[in-house]
Amino acid sequence: MRFVKNEEDKKEYKKFLEGHERGNFQQSLEWAEVKKPNWQPEVILAEGDKGEIIGSLCVLIRKIPIFGNIMYSSRGPVCNIHDMAVMKQLTDGAKELAKKYQAIVLRMEPDIVSEDQDFRNVVTSLGYQIKDDAKDFKDEIQPRYVFRLDIKGKTEEEVMAGFKQKWRYNIRLATKKGVTIKDGTKEDLKDFHKIMIETGARDGFIIRPLEYFEKMYDCLGSKHMKILMAYYEGKPISGVIPIFYGNKTWYLYGASSNEHRNLMPNYLLQWEMIKMAIQRKDDVYDFRGVSGVVDENHPQYGLYRFKQGFGATFTEFIGEVYMPYKPLTYKLYRFSEKAFRTIRQFKRKL
Which conformational region is residue 68 in: left (phi greater than 0), alpha (psi within -120 to 50 degrees), or beta? Predict the structure, then answer.
């Protein structure tokens, strides 16, 4: 086991991450740059007999007032998740970091399906605990429930054939009505952000500042991030931000104006992103989060239905896997965190 320390380590890690089937942009050094300075990254590497990388865990460390440092890994680890020896190397590395930073906990939200009992057995035998009660967006940092579209080895025609008929119709309707899609630049983030503020006011969620998206663009670059904008009569009416990394494309952010929603620009934007993923020869197109409460009366049911119509698979991840290094302090922190989220949700409703 070792840590990423220098430029050569970084190059080796990036190559490993982009080539691994479990690679994820949220484990990348580029994404870690986006999260600075609030989060300090450290990368743990598991090694094979010849010193080659066989597993990794990118950990972000943050100081929480009163409680101390927490360590967080979004969508890690990247390895053979059923190999006890590899997982132990990464766990030992995390323990070293916990001592170095006097951390109260390591929290992971891995890209691993909930029903993977072998992984559950591995992590619990290593001393981790699993938080199994999350259902809604506010319950965890990353969405536990997503829709994923299998596009491995498929053509555009094969993928579109899996869409619901109404979805195919809406894609054609948008084009027929004169909606056009353009690949944007950093400057177009201003229009995207204006529309996102409109979306947030309509759907009741908090919007990140424009500077955050500009920093994403600077850190991820055109290789890993794009801005797609939908226009009608020369006016931007909708936009999306896809992220490309390794063998996957993610629909990370979307925004739509209150005007011209009847022109179905969001359907056309999704199709454009899916086509990009197919052209990249990706294995997966990830629609990202939906609520785990599948109820027509739930306020997020429309989002669930929209993503489902593209023929994607409803996927439940295992949720939060964590190791408390200072159990009592961590319990107090979790209580305060839950109270903060409840208060924030109440304020949104007001």
Answer: left
pTM of the model: 0.93
Q: Report the amino acid identity of residue 328.
A: L
- Across the chain, mean pLDDT equals 94
d(CA 44, CA 246): 19
Q: Residue 249 in 3-state DSSP?
A: strand
**Residue with more model confidence, 341 or 274:** 274
Radius of gyration of the chain from its Cα atoms, rounded to whole angstroms: 21
Q: Rounded to whole angstroms, how far apart are CA atoms 110 and 79?
A: 11
Q: Which residues contact 60 (CB under 8 A, 6 or more apart)?
A: 32, 35, 39, 40, 41, 71, 72, 73, 74
Question: How many residues comprise the chain?
Answer: 350
Q: Enumerate the β-bridge partners of residue 298.
A: none
Among 91, 95, 92, 85, CA closest to 48: 85
DSSP 195-214: HHHHHHHHHT-----HHHHH
Rounded Cα distance between 164 and 179, Å, is 21
Across the range 103-108, mean pLDDT stands at 98
Distance CA 243, CA 228 (A): 11
Spacing of C-alpha 25 from chain mean position: 8
| CA atoms of 31 and 35, how far apart (whole Å) | 7
User: What's the CA angle centered on 77, arms 39 and 220, to 5 degrees?
Assistant: 50
d(CA 219, CA 47): 28
**Residue 76 DSSP class:** -
